[in-house]
């Protein structure tokens, strides 16, 4: 296809509103996301110019760096029963493999390790809740190469949403790998269209804020329960108000660096801490925030092991 922005406009014609695409293209500025978001005042730690260098230096002189790197490679495969209000008996036991925040360009060897650990897992559909890339601007090629490696280990349908580190310009390449990106869109999952689940996915709610949940639900058959994919739990209020049954997300990394005892120094998300990792519930909507498979800023983790999650759907 034509890889210019006009080519992208043609590729996404009919799938996104012009305003959505143009806003995304305009905000994907060459210098990356600002340190302080002018709209919300949120601080993007990953964009602090010296944060990586200072953190790495501090960890090296305290002798903790290599241990953190080893921790970041010890991926857990977590089993979780996801209650979905309104789920039909036909969908009981359906398994979703949930991968979040792989940040595939932070470490060249990471994608192969992740692919090894994913191959052989049993699931019905895989969902990826964003942040394929570590960089927030510029060359996406290393992340896309890593994604190709990961996709080769996934034998089944794969759906994804974009995170705040991802460019909408990556979508045609991601979809060419057989990963359907949901840009405020949805589709029916399951063995039969009348007893399935509506899988909705929205664009990044953290930085780009182009998450249109109502639009993602608009083609849902009457009374069909909906599972929402969103990069960040920050969309929780909108999701509950729109009638979403269950929400899967990531972004927070669970803090990535936690104190002994599990207290996260930051979750980088404008939501209650109870929604920043693991299973949660909000006004009748269930949810799960993955602590992620990868790492950001530095490839280290402390007291917060990386994970992929096998969700088994259960009626609530
Ligand atoms: Fe993120």
From TrEMBL:
Q: Which organism is it from?
A: Aquisalimonas asiatica
Any one GO cellular component localisation term in the record: membrane
Q: Keywords for this entry?
A: Hydrolase, Metal-binding
Q: Which GO terms describe its biological process?
A: lipid A biosynthetic process
**Gene3D superfamilies according to UniProt:** 3.60.21.10
Put simply, this protein is called: Calcineurin-like phosphoesterase domain-containing protein
Using the record's annotation, list all stretches that form the Calcineurin-like phosphoesterase domain.
95-254
An MF annotation (GO) of this entry: UDP-2,3-diacylglucosamine hydrolase activity
Q: Name one Pfam family in it.
A: Metallophos
Q: Which domain of life is it from?
A: Bacteria
Q: What is the lineage of its organism?
A: Bacteria, Pseudomonadati, Pseudomonadota, Gammaproteobacteria, Chromatiales
Q: Cross-referenced InterPro entries, in alphabetical order?
A: Calcineurin-like_PHP, Metallo-depent_PP-like, Metallophosphoesterase_sf
């Amino acid at each position: 296809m034509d890889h210019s922005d006009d080519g992208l406009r043609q590729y996404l014609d009919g799938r996104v509103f012009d305003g959505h695409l143009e806003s995304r293209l305009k905000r994907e500025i060459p210098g990356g996301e600002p340190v302080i978001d002018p709209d919300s005042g949120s601080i993007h730690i990953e964009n602090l110019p010296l944060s990586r260098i200072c953190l790495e230096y501090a960890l090296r002189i305290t002798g903790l760096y290599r241990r953190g790197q080893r921790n970041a490679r010890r991926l857990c495969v977590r089993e979780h029963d996801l209650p979905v209000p309104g789920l039909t008996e036909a969908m009981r036991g359906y398994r979703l493999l949930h991968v979040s925040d792989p940040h595939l360009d932070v470490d060249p060897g990471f994608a192969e390790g992740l692919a090894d650990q994913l191959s052989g897992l049993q699931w019905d559909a895989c969902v990826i809740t964003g942040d394929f890339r570590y960089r927030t601007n510029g060359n996406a090629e290393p992340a896309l190469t890593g994604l190709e490696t990961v996709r080769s280990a996934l034998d089944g349908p794969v759906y994804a949403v974009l995170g705040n580190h991802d460019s909408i310009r990556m979508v045609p390449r991601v979809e060419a790998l057989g990963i359907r990106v949901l840009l405020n869109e949805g589709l029916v999952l399951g063995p039969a269209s009348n007893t399935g689940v509506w899988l909705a996915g929205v664009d990044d709610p953290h930085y780009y804020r182009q998450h249109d949940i109502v639009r993602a639900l608009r083609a849902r058959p009457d009374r069909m329960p909906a599972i929402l994919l969103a990069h960040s739990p920050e969309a929780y209020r909108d999701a509950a108000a729109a009638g979403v049954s269950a929400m899967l997300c990531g972004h927070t990394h669970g803090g990535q660096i936690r104190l002994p005892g599990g207290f996260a120094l930051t979750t980088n998300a404008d939501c209650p801490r109870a929604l920043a990792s693991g299973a949660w519930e909000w006004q009748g909507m269930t949810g799960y925030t993955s602590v992620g498979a990868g790492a950001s800023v530095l490839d280290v983790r402390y007291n917060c092991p990386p994970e992929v999650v096998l969700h088994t759907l259960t009626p609530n």
